[in-house]
Amino acid sequence: MKIAVFPGDGIGPEVTAEAVRVLETLDLPGLTLFEGDVGAAAYRRHGHPLPEETLTMAREADAVLFGAVGDPSCDNLPRGHRPEQAVLGLRSQLGLFANLRPATMFEGLEDASALRPEIAREIDLLIVRELNGDVYFGEKGTHTLPDGQREGWDRMAYSAGEVRRIAHTAFRAAQTRSKRLTSVDKANVLETSQLWRDVVIEVAAEYPDVTLDHLYVDNAAMQLVRAPGQFDTIVTGNLFGDILSDQASMCVGSIGLLPSASLGERETQHGIFGLYEPIHGSAPDIAGQGKANPLAAILSAAMMLRHSFGRAQDADRIESAVARVLADGVRGFDLGGEAGTRDLGDAVLARL
Ligand code: IPM
Ligand code: MG
């Protein structure tokens, strides 16, 4: 079990350390951890947010445990040198096109949600976000218009093949859940989205057991706070998935609770190669204070065991330990409590 650990910036190292402690507590055969530099930390040390040696380390591992990247001191660097390029580069260069972002209500957290408890209680959804295309990876630039103004532009595009492969991932995921899939697009305005919708409908023919519907992204954002219980599996593009997953996290109570898995096609001995990271960012405002919630990172490690190592039972154990921590009322600062990063790690270990 070769795991490359890339803690990154801000609270990344603190939360990743707790996830590593959890992995080390389980009796995992042949567990080997390597640590690599990413983000602003890597830029400072190697002059690049995703150094070649980090990429090589990821390629040689069965899975990557990723913290967070982002640092305000880098906001004025050329885009190619900004910390975010580390995670974008790993996603694209390793072909990790399928991003799974589950959002489930934890028992006892209903009152922490931004929604009313009776509405929040219903949340049990999975966002399948496409991760290698869209406006994220299109050509981009800035230039000066004839009238002297500057103009910034980013090309948004999806090929049929890119849509087809993420649609298959989403339909298969829906089959393991309650067999309802919602595809989110903006087909009333964007050609990219019309193609997306057409291809998703074509792929649906291969999954007659899954009920498919379509929502425009503005309506989806509204429905997600109005009645999130209506959603089971959601499939959407890179940009819409980025936005809707942050929104879903506050419906659950805190962005410090949502894990993610980014998967491609490379197989490992017992599963599939993946990169696992909390959906939150580097939170520079609280970095180094021991206040960050490590539960999203710990839940990301659980997803890793399930998808890359075929260890569903260990993943279940971690997930139930986290659920019990929250049910027992142990809460971090993000949820109005006083448990620090390390305390939350200890609480999970105790229940394991
Ligand atoms: C996420 C993050 C990233 C994204 C950033 C850090 C590039 O917001 O994983 O959701 O936009 O995908
Ligand atoms: Mg995001």
Question: Would you give an account of this structure?
Answer:
The chain has 352 residues and is of the alpha/beta class. It folds into 2 domains: 1-100 and 256-352, 3-Layer(aba) Sandwich (Isopropylmalate Dehydrogenase), CATH 3.40.718; 124-251, Isopropylmalate Dehydrogenase. It contains 12 helices and 12 strands. The protein has helices spanning 12-25, 39-46, 52-60, 84-93, 117-120, 160-176, 191-204, 217-226, 238-252, 295-309, 312-327, 341-351, and strands spanning 2-8, 32-35, 63-68, 98-104, 124-130, 140-144, 150-154, 180-185, 211-216, 233-236, 259-268, 271-278. A 10-stranded mixed sheet has the order 2-1-3-12-11-4-5-10-8-9, sandwiched between helices. A two-stranded antiparallel sheet has the order 6-7. The longest helix is centred in the middle third of the chain and has 17 residues, at 160-176. The protein is globular and about 60 Å long. 50% of the residues are buried. Magnesium ion binds next to helix 9.
In short:
The protein has 352 residues and is of the alpha/beta class. Helix content is 41%, strand content 21%. The chain has helices at 12-25, 39-46, 52-60, 84-93, 117-120, 160-176, 191-204, 217-226, 238-252, 295-309, 312-327, 341-351, and strands at residues 2-8, 32-35, 63-68, 98-104, 124-130, 140-144, 150-154, 180-185, 211-216, 233-236, 259-268, 271-278.
